Each structure stands twice: as structure tokens, then as C-alpha cells.
Amino acid sequence: MRTRNRLEFRVGREESGLDSDQVPSLATLRVKWQEEEEGLRLVCGEMAYQVVEKSVALGALESELQELQSRLAALEVRVAQLREARAQQAQQVEDRRAQNAVQREAYEALRAHVGLREAALRRLQEEARDLLERLVQRKARAAAERNLRNERRERAKQARVSQELKKAAKRIVSISEGPDTLGDGMRERTETLALAPEPEPLENEACEKWKRPFRSASATSLTLSHCVDVVKGLLDFKKRRGHSIGGAPEQRYQIIPVCVATRLPTQAQDVLDAHLSEVNAVRFGPNSSLLATGGADRLIHLWNVVGSRLEVNQTLEGAGGSITSVDFDPSGYQVLAATYNQAAQLWKVGEAQSKETLSGHKDKVTAAKFKLTRHQAVTGSRDRTVKEWDLGRAYCSRTINVLSYCNDVVCGDHIIISGHNDQKIRFWDSRGPHCTQVIPVQGRVTSLSLSHDQLHLLSCSRDNTLKVIDLRVSNIRQVFRADGFKCGSDWTKAVFSPDRSYALAGSCDGALYIWDVDTGKLESRLQGPHCTAVNAVAWCYSGSYVVSVDQGRKVVLWH
User: Fold this and answer.
1) Helix/strand/coil (H, E, C) string of 98-148?
2) Which CATH number fits domain 268-558: 3.30.70.2210, 2.130.10.10, 3.40.1110.10, 3.90.1300.10?
3) 99-151 pLDDT, tens digit each
4) Do 496 and 480 contact (CB within 8 A), yes or no?
5) What is residue 227's three-state secondary structure?
6) pLDDT less than 50: residues of the chain
7) Residue 310 burial by Cβ neighbours in a 10 Å radius (0-12, 13-18, 19+)
8) To which H or E segment does residue 43 belong?
């Protein structure tokens, strides 16, 4: 402001000293100066505005710079962390490489060791097969030699007795009137006849050689002839029966009582993870309170049914392979199991280790059942044979070639029934060598169940049906189907109820299906604890409980 006053003062002095001719130029300068001043003001205003804008922009840039610097610091920290992690991972990679190298060396060593062990195992298996074949051949030779010795002994005995009879018939006996003399003569002849299993017809010789001083001699001779005929007839009858004089008749188990009415199960009472892997077989004992289950873990567990609960009774060990079938003998004191180890094994209840091994099959044994006669059993195998066994000697008494994989067998009084992969059920007379009948069904046969009266047969097959066969007319009487029912495997087992009123089977979806045998209708469907396919079911002889087992290790008690 002061500078401006000074300029105005100077201008006034100059104006006062100037000539009148210079006045327009000064005015012009003044105007020009004012214009320039105004321009400077505008320029200053614009510059001030720009300074403000630049200051704002500078502040924003400084903020952004600070943010970028903070991000840069964070990234630098992250980079340092990643570098450290990378170094650790590189170290881990090196460690893993070292471990892999060590494990590779160990693997190569194990592989070489396994190769040696496999070669040794193959040698042992070949030796075992050779030993088994030798054992079977030796047993067969021993049985043949025993039969030959018995036959020779019997022939010698018959020849000796025949000679005694001839001597007795040729002997001259005097008969007096005294009762003592007659009694002694008859006693002597009676003792001689008691030794005779097969005499010759000697009536004429006896009549010629005997002296008859009295009329009673004729009666005595007729009595002797009659006794000889009786003994000979008895011997002929024994020979027709296939037994020797001293042979004992076949011993049979006592008949198991059957319930009058079966109770349908409604709910699961007990659920157990009973085995270490898949459970394939289940069977009730004849007293309905003892239960056996067998699985792929090569164990058989015996359970007591106590108050709608399953309690562990015993574990049977020593099976050579996965258990495919279990069965109690009618007395309930023995357990027979079929295994994948080409054999069946026998246990006594109360003894943990196997009592006998029935070897002779060349493939998996899929079924093993007791017969109604003591010390006899039947097995079926995938080697296309069914074998009958003498359990007293652990000896195969008969081998039947059945033409197809056998998945199950059942036994009647004088009949063996087998179910096969070729969709057929075959009937074999246990007293004859040939198949007596074949009934075709649709689908591979997975199981057979024979009713207690031996008049009806229940079959389960892979066409998802159950069939009831009337054995009196050898015809399929009923076919059971249901929506949702699917047969889960080639070893799925279905059973009759004890009174043959119902048929029971487990399905691939874990449900149990129960049909009424008389009407053919689905009576009940039980869905519960099973989450995998049900392999087998069992119905106790009292008709009160049902047990099912599945591929997921479960054993379920239904009531």
C-alpha cells in the first residue's frame, strides 16, 4: 500500500512538471498500468488458487505415499516371511528326499524279502498240497486195507462157523429116554448153532447121520433143521442191510422239537459290531439260547441270548480262511464251519481250538452241514463237488461231481440237495451215486433251507426272488418278490421260520423281508441298524428271535 502511494506521488509530481502536450501519454500509461495491475491481480488469484489446489493434491499424494509406504513395509515383511517359509519348505523337501531315499532302499529290501517269502510260500503250498494228497491217498489206502481186512476176517469167520456147523451136523448123538440126556444133547447143538453166522443147508445130512432109537429123535432132527434155517435167514437179512453180524445200526440224533407258532419280529433289541470285518454266516443252536456267527476275520463267535441281549460266550479260533458257513449238530455240542481255505473245520463247544480239519476240496468250501446221523457231514465247494464225511475218522466217504459251482447244501434223511451257479437245484440219493432230479430256477442259487418236516425247500437266487419247492411233487409252489428286495451277493442266505409259516431274507439295502408262505404276501419289512447288505439271517428254533448279519460287521438281534 505504501509502495502504491509513493508511485502515485511520483506520478503527480511528474504530471505537474510535464507539459500539457505529455498529459495524454501519461493517462494512457496510467490506464495501461491499471490494466497490467488488474492482469497481475488475476494472475495472482489464479496462482493462489493453483497453490491451494496443488497443496490439496500434495496432501493427497502425501497420504497416498504414506499408504504405499505402509503397504510396501507390509509387503517387505510378507516377502521376508515367504522367504523364510520357502527356506523351511526347501529344507523339508531335502529332508523328505532323504527320507524317500531311505524308504526306497527299505522298500527295495522289503520287496526282495517279499519275493523270497513268496517263493518260500509257494514251495510250502506245493509241499502242503503234496502232503494233503499223500494224506488223502494214505487215508484211502488205509480205509481200503481196513475194509479188506474186515472182509477177510468176516470170510474166515464164516468159513470157520460153516465148518463147525458141518461138524455138528455130522456128529452122531445118542438120545435116551432120560430128560437129562435129551437136554444135554439139545444144549450142545444150541451152543454150536449160536456160533453160526452163515451155515449151509444141512438138513438132509443131519437126518441121515442122526440115530433115532426113539420116536423123539425125529422131532429133535426137525428142531435142528428149523434152527439152522432161522440162523441162515437172519444172516441173509444182515447181509442185505449191508452190516455184519456184529455191526451196529446207524446212530441218529434225537429229534429236535419244533415250535407250534412263530412270533414275527418287530424291532431290533441289540446291535453289535461283532467282528473285525464282514460277517458271512449265522446259526442258532438247537436250544435257541446259543448263537454262532462267522466272518471274514477267520473267527467264530458264540453268543448267549440273555434277556433280549447278546452276551459273548466263547471265540473259536484256528480257522484257515474266511468263514462262509456255520452249523450246529442236532445235539448242540459241535460246530462245523466252511472256509475259503479249501477245507471245513470242526469244533467242540467249550474248546477254543479246532478239533478236526476236513481237507480234500480244491477250491473254496461254501457250505458245510451236519447230517441227521451221528458223525456224518456234507460239504459243498466251488470245485464242483459235494463230499460226504465220516467225522469219526475225518475221512471223505464219498465225492459227488455236481457239474457246477455249489453255493449251498442241505441234508434230509436219505437225500442231499445242492444249489448251484448254473441256476439249478440238484437232488442226490445218499445211498446211490447218481443225481435223482434237477429243478431249474431263474438266477444263481445263493442258499437253500429245508423245512423240519423235510417236505418243503426254500431257495434264494440272484434274480431277487425266493422260491418254495414242494418236495412231495417236486414243483415250485410259491415265488416271493418285493419292491426294494435285492439279493446282495452269491452267498446271501434265506431261511424258513421254525414252523414253516414264513420265509425270511435280508436285502442289499439293509432291510429284512418276511413273506407268508401260505398266501405269498409280504408280511413285514424291517428297516433298522443295517447300513450295508445283509449276508445271512437265522430264526431260533423256539420262534422268538431272529438274528441278521451284514457286510459292515454288524450282528442284530430282533424280537
Assistant:
1) HHHHHHHHHHHHHHHHHHHHHHHHHHHHHHHHHHHHHHHHHHHHHHHHHHH
2) 2.130.10.10
3) 999 999 999 999 899 989 988 998 898 888 888 778 877 877 777 787 788 77
4) no
5) helix
6) 1-3, 7, 9, 11, 18, 175-248
7) buried
8) helix 23-170
